[in-house]
Task: structure prediction
Amino acid sequence: MKNKLSINDIAKALQVSKTTISFILNGKAEEKRISKDLTERVIKFIKENDFRPNQLAKSLSTGKTFTIGLMVEKISDYFFAQIAYHVEELANKSGYKIIYCSTENDTQKTKELIKLFAERHVDGFIITPPVGIEKEIKDLMQNDIPVVLFDRFFTDFNTSYVVMDNYESTYKAINYLITTKCANIAFIELESDQNQMTERKRGYVNAMNENRLTPNILRIPFSNDKKQTILQITSFLADNIQLDALFFATNYLTMHGIKAIHNRGLKIPHDISIVAFDDHDFFDIYTPSITAVAQPIQEMAQQLINILLNDISSRKRTIQQKVVPAKLILRDSTIRKI
Amino acid sequence: MKNKLSINDIAKALQVSKTTISFILNGKAEEKRISKDLTERVIKFIKENDFRPNQLAKSLSTGKTFTIGLMVEKISDYFFAQIAYHVEELANKSGYKIIYCSTENDTQKTKELIKLFAERHVDGFIITPPVGIEKEIKDLMQNDIPVVLFDRFFTDFNTSYVVMDNYESTYKAINYLITTKCANIAFIELESDQNQMTERKRGYVNAMNENRLTPNILRIPFSNDKKQTILQITSFLADNIQLDALFFATNYLTMHGIKAIHNRGLKIPHDISIVAFDDHDFFDIYTPSITAVAQPIQEMAQQLINILLNDISSRKRTIQQKVVPAKLILRDSTIRKI
DNA sequence: CTGAAAGCGCTTACAG
DNA sequence: CTGAAAGCGCTTACAG
Result:
């Protein structure tokens, strides 16, 4: 920005002190009892010259940047991309901008990114935490920087968060499958000990046990690529020909699982029913359409922003925890058997 | 950030001037011939106290924020979400952070957002421009702020950009359909006069004409919701039963088109072949898998960052324009007819 | 009703 | 080899 106007230039041009300009700029003209006449002259000048105060200078002196740090596992994933969209839209309304990054669920990378965002003095953080960053989160909180976790949280200490009801929604979905006469239901998940995953599994296992059915769990390593995952699910299906339903713990697993089901020449839902965790555009279009446990994305975004902005603007930090219910969207991939 | 260390505190604690601290911090110790002994003492102190300079202050005095403004049509769209992922990853390597927003292709909103980003002194812009923001782009350039457009550009004035070869890739895809003996090929597009769309259409029309086939174009209003789009395509199919292939100009149109094809009870590819512009995870999984014109997303992101960072770091602005070739990914939705 | 001055936390030209 | 001082462009407590 070369030769851009500053508050000083205006002060000089108008022969007024910059204090006065600043007050007017910040809508404190009345409060500071600046004369109407002067106020109007200044406003006119500002409009005519399209003056925009330098936000960096403003931030440096007020300590507020009106920037939120959004740290998600991977911005391009359907779920996170949707969250990013809604969070930005809502933040915008309150004058906040979003700076984002993908953690890739990498602990070390995330620690560094938190520091980088803190250096830039973001006003608050929205984070899907990988394991092992408890200390960094605590540091932020001790430094009085608002943080709200989402998608998952730490069970061993208290933070604000917005998560889905992973246990309940999975539990219900499995029970639904059972009402359709499925009995051999497998649970396909990522190898992860984060609570969003363990809760889904707990919902599955409890639903199965309560119905005197035997849980059957396939764990896919994180390091797998697409092809490996498809192969692994394919051979799992070959080894478990009794299966009549699959519950996929993430939407990407569902995508790969569908390929595997094809490889085995099985028909959905006739030979095997499937339910996906996390909805996706795709599931509605696919033939047959796919039953899914849908996260209420817009509501989650709204909660995240509410909690965060509220925390930013209030003087004392509060802990707020929201567990939002999911919605089981019934489609054609689950059908009554026999 | 309460009671955080500043360069002043360090200067006091170590009984050195802050000038010296600043030099050491910026790796200018040797250049400024600071004694090794002092340098080490300072570095040690910084490490021990985990001192991180306030980037706001730094930016205010240097004029550099190491922030890039990414303005896309909609961050949650598959294509833009992928671009966002790669752009951030690449920018990160050079110490840049990304601040993003969705323009929704709204001219007025975009103008305002450009100003908001400029106020924050982003070092450069990556923009998918809606129509009518030529003046704002020119202003940025005149103020010596690097801008690179992508996905589309303005034909009436010179800017840096990275776009796909929309004409050529569509032209080739249509010709491919013709080699599979399709003759009644319709082109389904969004009502848009932006060049990425008009170029795709030009590729279609030329390929048809050169083969003495009659173009048949369906334009979907921007304002349509999902349901309306599906209905519109469904009735188009009913009115044009001679069609043996559809080319969809965007991946969302493809999704809706597939539903419409289902509604009509047509089988892909037996009754009708389809080709999508823009690839999507979904297309590979769908049965039948969908032939698509794939944008080389990672390459585009790389070009965007190369051009922008190069422009940021060089003193004189350059105009760089890259037209990257697309790849026609043949899958099961296009099959030789008869 | 309005302004001079200090401060936010850095950088850097200049001086010795 | 090192430092005092001015400056980046704002805000705000204080004074009159």
Remarks:
- Chain B has a mean pLDDT of 93.
- The first strand of chain B starts at residue 67 and ends at 72.
